[in-house]
Amino acid sequence: MSDLRLERLVKRYGSLAAVDGISLSLGEGGFLSLVGPSGCGKTTVLRMVAGLIEPDGGRIYVGGDDVTDVPVHKRNLGLVFQSYALFPHMTVAENVAFGLHRRGVPRADVETRVAKALALVRLDGLAERAPRQLSGGQQQRTALARALVVEPRLLLLDEPFSNLDALLRDEMRIEIKRLQQEVGITTLFVTHDQGEALGMADQVAVMNRGRLEQLAAPRDLYRAPSSAFVAHFIGRANLLRGEVRGRRGEEVTVGLPTGAAVRACGEIGDGRCCVVVRQENVRLVPAATTADNSFAARIVVAAFAGATAQYVVRLDDGTELQVQVPGARADLGPGATVVAEWDATDASVVPDA
Amino acid sequence: MTAGLRKRLDRNGLGLLSPPLLLLLVIFLAPLLAMLPTSFQPYIPGKGIGEGFTLEHYAKALTDSYYLEIIGRTLALGVIVTLTCLVLGYPLAFFLARTESRWRPWLMLLVIFPLLLNLVVRTFGWIALLANRGLVNDTLKALGLIETPIKLLFNFGGLLIALSHIFLPFMVLVLVGVIRNLPRDVEDAARTLGAGWAATFFRVTLPLSLPGILAGSILVFVLTVSALVTPRLLGGPTYKVMSTLIYDQFLQLLNWPAGAALSFILTAIAVGLISLSSGMARRMGAGT
Amino acid sequence: MSARAAERWRARGLAGFAGLMLAFLMLPVVVVVLASFTTTSYLTIPPKGLTLRWYGQVFADAEYIDALWFSLVLAIVVTVVSIVLGTMAAYALARRQVPAAPAVSGLLMSPLAFPGVVIGVALLQYYTLTGLRGSFAGLLLAHLVITLPYTVRTILASMAGADPEIEAAARVLGANPWVAFWKATLPVIRPGMMAGGLFAFITSFDNVPVTIFILGTRHTTLPVKIFTAIEYGVDPSIAALSTLLIAGTAVFLVAAERWVGFHRFA
Description:
The complex is a heterotrimer. Chain A is built from eight helices and 20 strands. Chain A is α+β, with helices and mostly antiparallel strands. Chain A has two domains: about 5-225, Rossmann fold (3-Layer(aba) Sandwich); about 235-350, CATH 2.40.50.100. In chain A, the strands form four sheets. Chain A has a six-stranded mixed β-sheet, sandwiched between helices. Chain A starts with a strand and ends with a strand. Chain B is mainly α. Chain B has a single domain, classed as Orthogonal Bundle (MetI-like fold), CATH 1.10.3720. Chain C is an all-alpha fold. Chain C has eleven helices and no strands. The longest helix of chain C has about 35 residues, at about 1-35. Chains B and C meet through helix 2, helix 4, helix 5, helix 6 and helix 8 of B and helix 1, helix 3, helix 4, helix 5 and helix 6 of C.
């Protein structure tokens, strides 16, 4: 078990920089999610850490050792693939034993360690099965056991849930989180799903177009996104583009192109900016109150989803907002006129992308 | 034809299938079946096929030392050509399957080209290469390695070289298909688990390409033991394999019964091996 | 860095070996082309001198020209009929509930498993009995038997990529079954039909083991003609003729690659 540090990591494909100078560090026993839209370079980062892709620049340190030039098979990392990548011609036990054999572990020890690893992922009894005879969840547990049994310095998870159905996905998320805490292994987790990224990790790194947009704890990332991209990618917040008109302490007044003014909080200079309004921070009320921001609006779409309800409302100036309210209070239909309100403290200002 | 019948023939596809199936029944199965009784009839020198029933052609083919030598030679050629194609073809196929060169389609065409080129022409090329005054002997002489030409035509060595060349593309194309379909993640997984290139290749890549190796080997073996043109031209009238023996029995000696019996023995080898291997492939596919 | 260097050397070694094997594959081709230009009356490589005399001799030989036309006409007719029959069979196997479908497709493929010489001698006897020996029809039917596996297989493979729902959609939109097939399915399976047709053409145009037993006395095919010529003795005119076939095949292959991306079907 070790910490992980990336220094200005670069990978180019032709003229395109798939990874464009990523630096980050992850403490021992930490769990970091690397999240971003597909093609943002997150998987390339993970594969460079694993040694499967050779970086064009930058260094990779594991436990203080520079492993940039160490070949894959000498890095001693555990990697769980999106496809699980189980050896189809070997049984579950042989799959798990593979890494131990490569390390010259004596036969008797191999047996006990394989049995222990299988017990850890609750697969005891399936040791002699072939991978194709396993369910998706069992295959993933096998892949996890195979990665962990060699006691790797890092655990790397590459989109491990994308091949599971929704129910199994929730179950495996909790399972892996529990396992990671039990073993206490430093983990790098790559996903395109922001919910997964927030829920699993104690640190979230958001990537976009090969660059790191923001690295923060899940709560901070959600509450204080540093860019319009992060604000939209994490939680699909409403973004209102405009220009800073004035400032009083923490509070900023932003003029929208439609002429309306919005009050929000944030540290930002003058010029173009973006107001971030979370869907659940907008209140739909029958008549205007004393809120900092208050706009007459009309319901365009109403979609009830159980615990919550989703609305699309159109303000008088034509701007459309996504609004999420608790399902118990969803009694508005399309065409209804309402007032959309939010407090300045619930809206933040970020630079316009 | 009634409307009901027409509808049924359409739904079960037999309406569409009957022309091709009729063709195969009349021009393929019927001739083969018609040859079966011939193989059990006596041969009367000078007159041709006689009346009666005899097993002598089969018995002779499987006991007579002349025939046995030819059958043995054919099978040995099949095995050695197959192994040669496998050893030469696997690395080439591996390269073609994995290269990211933009020339890859054209390199593939270099493999396909000899396959499309007339077999007689390819064989003729080998005559030019292997003759006493051919390129191989001339080169060796010019290099001072030999003084008198080595005999490369009308013997096992020449046939082995030429047949390996002719069937190498089949092996390569089968293997390229299989190697390209190997899951790369699985090899990457082996490497992250501590396997160097040799362990990754011998423990993962090679075992996973076994179905392709089996398919390619069966194909090359069957093609080799069935080959007529190349053995005839490079072996001459004297150095015989089973198919050239059948050719002579039918066209030169006019001993159709013996030729028919040999044909069924050759067919049994080819078809038997193919059905055996498809059974094996099914079992491999069904898992451990 | 040494592990990476070793990896690079392994890759270079593999590429080198692959290059060597590709050269080996092309060796007889190059040799034939070179030999066709020699001024000597025997084969020699490298050629002594440079002459087109042997090409002139080939073009002046009426038997070669006749054999070439006969082979071409036969191969073209075989290709067209084989594509039609192959499409019928593949369509039925892919889209209809064929009883005993594995046996049917097994039968359609079986000429591939049988040695050519066995099919040839069986047809020799059968055609002698039925009077088909030496006829164009007999030759055509025999070539259809040995080309059908290729057309059925490639068209069946392209059929897998043609969604049956497209044809259903065309039917719903008012197309009759013929129009639906013609407009919805045919465009998708056309590459398979082309590739199958190319295989059929080559198989027919190249065939010796079956053809040689059922030819008549009036016409012969080009490969059988060359085959018998070599048995009598080789001279550079055969190299010249072979070179013409090599050039023709190369043009054919490049054109096929451009049209249908041939290497995907091989």
